[in-house]
Design a protein that fits this description.
Elements: H1 7-36, H2 42-62, H3 73-85, E1 90-94, H4 100-111, E2 116-121, H5 124-137, E3 143-147, H6 150-153, E4 161-166, H7 173-180, E5 184-192, H8 198-205, E6 211-215, E7 225-229
Parallel strand pairs: 1-2, 1-4, 2-3, 4-5
Antiparallel strand pairs: 5-7, 6-7
The protein binds S-adenosylmethionine.
Residues 57, 61, 68-71, 95-98, 100-101, 120-123, 126, 149-151, 167-169, 172 line the site of S-adenosylmethionine.
């Protein structure tokens, strides 16, 4: 029996995913209508979102302070499996929100024999909720959530990293990857959820930069990029 399948964690995740769906319904519907609007193109929408973030990413995410914006259960199970496959004991997460993805990853740490996940989130209320959710899962001892802008809080992650999840402001995936890159061990997994930024994708897909990377056929359309550090 894995920690992920334990009643305590499985029931909590079911409740959190239900909560997330209810709280994010309006946001998801607005995104869907923008995508489906006559004449709209996904590329244009992404360019628009990136431009908005580039002018004020803090302001963009403050508007979503009450939203989960969480990974799907499918992607969560993938996170757990990846962290088990990498035998991860040190994980870094850019964008913790209410801690749903963090629970999947911390459950893997528990089943790998222990370790540490460093999370990052700039909304104080989200940090408090994520910590409460991790405690409710019985996984709080494995997680340090750093409150503040990840461009500062993830400057020093203290040691070799087995897995990096980038799931914060879309436009910051590349700067955050570059911050953590010196700590990635050979073979480390770098998982980009909603990895749409052409600068990020161009970087991880260029073999000269020391990654092998491709989009996963998982939750298609959500831009799930899977890179492995091969340098
Ligand atoms: C897509 S959500 C993360 C969802 C989370 N990984 C999950 O699956 O439950 C992105 C989160 O990143 C946070 N964020 C965005 N940019 C950030 C930054 N520069 N530093 C810290 N947190 C940031 C936002 O406040 C938001 O809560």
């Amino acid at each position: 029996m894995t920690t992920l399948a334990s009643d305590r964690v499985a029931q909590l995740l079911t409740r959190l995913h239900q909560d997330a769906e209810a709280s994010d319904r309006e946001h998801v519907e607005a995104m869907m209508s923008a995508i489906e609007a006559p004449g709209a193109s996904m590329d244009e929408l992404i360019a628009c979102l990136l431009a908005e973030e580039r002018s004020d990413y803090r302001g963009v995410y403050r508007r979503y302070a009450g939203n989960y914006l969480a990974v799907t259960p499918t992607y969560g199970r993938f996170l757990y499996a990846m962290a088990r496959a990498c035998k991860a004991t040190r994980i870094v997460e850019f964008g913790t929100s209410m801690g749903i993805s963090t629970i999947y990853l911390a459950a893997a740490l528990r089943d790998n024999g222990g370790g540490c996940l460093i999370g990052s989130e700039f909304e104080p209320a989200k940090v408090a909720r994520a910590r409460a959710n991790l405690d409710a899962a019985g996984l709080g001892d494995l997680v340090e959530i750093r409150e503040g802008d990840a461009r500062e809080t993830l400057r020093d992650v203290g040691g070799e990293v087995d897995l990096l999840l980038v799931d914060g402001a879309f436009s910051l995936y590349l700067p955050v990857l570059k911050l953590v890159e010196p700590y990635l061990r050979p073979g480390a997994a770098v998982l980009g959820e909603n990895a749409f930024d052409p600068d990020y994708l161009g970087y991880v897909r260029d073999p000269a930069n020391g990654y092998v990377s491709q989009t996963l056929p998982l939750d298609e359309g959500r831009g799930n990029e899977f890179a492995v550090r091969v340098a």
